[in-house]
Design goal:
With about 625 residues, this protein is of the alpha/beta class. Helices cover about 35% and strands about 25% of the residues. Bound molecules: 6-O-phosphono-alpha-D-glucopyranose.
Length: about 625
């Protein structure tokens, strides 16, 4: 979703802004722009499409953009189509603004501004902000004060970067509901939606709190909360760890698929004692044991792929601990006045920790103030809003995930969720030590099993050729594989743009069987588990109707390929953890189909990595 970069420095900053935008491309966007102040003027360039188009446009007259202060933006359209006039920065007089988020009351503000004589050149909500600041600046010719006066007039969630020709030393920024970090340099300072954008120029960051307004100059950073100057800690990060290069891979997504054995191993190490692998580490969630011992109910909230991880966790929680567990998409939960029962553990699963719906759903549960509520963030970004707003932080150690389609974040979420199930089970004595030991030893085989499943890549690539010209596809699974069927369908539609649906195979005869014909491929997740025989019957139903089956089956299943039935053997894995391993073939299948169809694999059309608006 929209990305902001800003800089105030001694050196020319155009390339810093452009490189920053490139590093934010993963967020998803449809246009890009920048403004630099030079010789008392705002120099602006905006382009629809990729950041490269902006780089090329700037390169035509690079001297226009030789300046020491500027702001830049990637826009993901909300108000108004992707078009040059709607791309940021938006300008009013001598003021330029970049914006991430939504100003909900922009329509009424716009009317008032039009009545005052302001002319609008875009369809965006952001232009309202630029004109409002301009208007207030006329009464209070101090940029910080003018911005401060505008913020209470805006309803919604947003982050802003603002510059004014008459204050060419000052970059003003606001964080209110959308992510924003300050990068601290030596004699230069920066802002960005994600620290990744600024890693080429600094590894020192300040994370703004909600409602913070900051004024950056080359040599100072002043932060204000409720009008009072406050200090925010500087965090030094290990830039190596946050390295997000594609390396030898053609796409981030493929690199991230291949990183899964290591990412899962890292996530396991956080909880499993290396000296005694049949028990959890003493320090794993130790300081939260009191809270975890009181919970009687689990409520999981998440969106997209993270929601599918939650669906698997529901099976695990109920089966292994007998604690009731509900899982719901956050965008529905937040609007249906749900009941949050006392002593609930609310688990919010989010790769980014900035998903607006998940954050709002969390806040709604907190507002209800049920007795004994414990909130937990299962998140890949330690500095995110979600982590700050919850009682317990359980990290996934996937490392930065750049591809819009989530892969390694998903499998590490699954593993961390299983570790949580084990912790709750052990803390509440709902699981005996033998069961715990068995599951821990099976968990430790996962990195090896994931590694072995990556060897299926070539076979799956061959299989994917059958999907290239297809219009629609079904993914089937039962039990623990049903959420993986949903995830497989989501992956395929996200990156290949083929319509795909995931179904619990037992539901076939209640509708989707009507779709089956020779032109619709049907992917089946068929580990040799307790549901295998029932699933085979479902496959027969499809086969008898001339459907073409593409089956991922256990090596031990003894399934054999036949006419209209293709089989790829997946390494044997215990039933409980099979969803983690079966994620790999569906990810690889979607990837190869997308590459074959020539789509933009890492940044699929219309999608954003981090959905910070509702
Ligand atoms: C977007 C992304 C998905 C992701 C979902 C939830 O739709 O494209 O890949 O699963 O948001 O994101 P989160 O960061 O909360 O896991």
């Amino acid at each position: 979703m929209c990305g902001i970069v800003g800089a105030v420095a001694e050196r020319n900053i155009a390339n810093i802004l452009l490189e920053g935008l490139k590093r934010l491309e993963y967020r998803g966007y449809d246009s890009a722009g920048l403004t630099v102040i030079r010789d008392g003027e705002l120099h602006r360039e905006r382009q629809v499409g990729k950041v490269q188009a902006l780089v090329d446009a700037v390169a035509i007259n690079p001297e226009f953009f030789d300046g020491h202060i500027g702001i830049a933006h990637t826009r993901w359209a909300t108000h108004g189509e992707p078009a040059q006039r709607n791309a940021h920065p938006h300008v009013s007089g001598k003021i330029a603004v970049v914006h991430n988020g939504i100003v909900e009351n922009y329509a009424e503000l716009k009317e008032e501004l039009i009545a005052k004589g302001y002319e609008f050149t875009s369809q965006t909500d952001t232009e309202v902000v630029a004109h409002l600041i301009n208007d207030l600046y006329k009464q209070t010719p101090d940029l910080l004060e003018a911005v401060r006066a505008v913020i209470p007039l805006l309803h919604g969630a947003f982050a802003l970067g603002i510059v004014h020709v008459d204050s060419p030393e000052e970059l003003i920024t606001v964080r209110l509901g959308s992510p924003l970090v300050i990068g601290v340099g030596i004699g230069e300072n920066f802002i960005a939606s994600d620290q990744l954008a600024l890693l080429p120029v600094t590894n020192r960051f300040m994370y703004l709190e909600e409602g913070d307004i900051a004024k950056l100059t080359r040599n100072s950073i002043q932060i204000f909360a409720d009008g009072v100057e406050v200090s925010r800690k500087i965090h030094e990060i290990d830039a190596q760890q946050h390295n997000a290069d594609k390396g030898e891979f053609k796409h981030y997504m493929l690199k991230e698929i291949y990183e899964q054995p290591d990412a899962v191993a890292r996530t396991l190490e956080m909880a499993i004692d290396s000296t005694n692998t049949s028990k959890l580490r003493d320090d794993f969630l130790q300081r939260h044991e009191d809270k975890l011992s009181g919970i009687r109910n689990i409520q999981i909230l998440a969106c997209g792929t993270s929601y599918h991880a939650g669906m698997v966790a529901k099976y695990w929680f109920e089966n292994l601990t007998r604690l009731p567990c509900s899982v719901e998409v956050a965008s529905e939960f937040r609007y249906r006045n749900p009941v949050v029962v006392d002593n609930s553990l609310v688990i919010c699963i989010s790769q980014s920790g900035e998903t607006a719906d998940t954050l709002s759903a969390l806040r709604d549960t907190q507002k209800q103030k049920p007795t004994g509520l414990v909130s937990l963030a299962l998140c890949n970004v330690a500095t995110s809003s979600l982590v700050r707003e919850t009682d317990i932080y359980l990290p996934t150690l996937a490392g930065p995930e750049i591809g819009v389609a989530s892969t390694k974040a998903f499998t590490t979420q699954l593993v961390a969720l299983m570790l949580l199930v084990l912790k709750v089970g052990a803390t509440q004595q709902r699981m005996d030590s033998e069961r715990l030991g068995t599951l821990l030893s099976e968990l430790q085989q996962l990195p090896g099993q994931l590694y072995a499943s990556l060897h299926l890549d070539a076979a799956i690539k061959t299989m994917s050729e059958s999907f290239e010209d297809k219009k629609s596809c079904l993914f089937l699974g039962r039990g623990l594989q049903f959420p993986i069927a949903l995830e497989g369908a989501l992956k395929l539609k996200e990156i290949s743009y083929i319509h795909a649906e995931g179904y619990a195979a037992g539901e076939l005869k209640h509708g989707p069987l009507a779709l089956v014909d020779k032109d619709m491929p049907i992917v089946v997740l068929a580990p040799k588990d307790s549901m295998f025989d029932k699933l085979k019957a479902n496959m027969q139903e499809v086969h008898a109707r001339h459907g073409e089956l593409f089956v991922f089956a256990s090596e031990s299943s003894k399934m054999v390929a036949e006419d209209r039935m293709h089989v790829v053997y997946v390494p044997d894995v215990c039933e409980t953890l099979a969803p983690v391993v079966y994620s790999i073939p569906v990810q690889l299948l979607s990837y190869h189909v997308a590459v074959m169809r020539g789509t933009d694999v890492d940044q699929p059309r219309n999608l954003a990595k981090s959905v910070t608006v509702e």
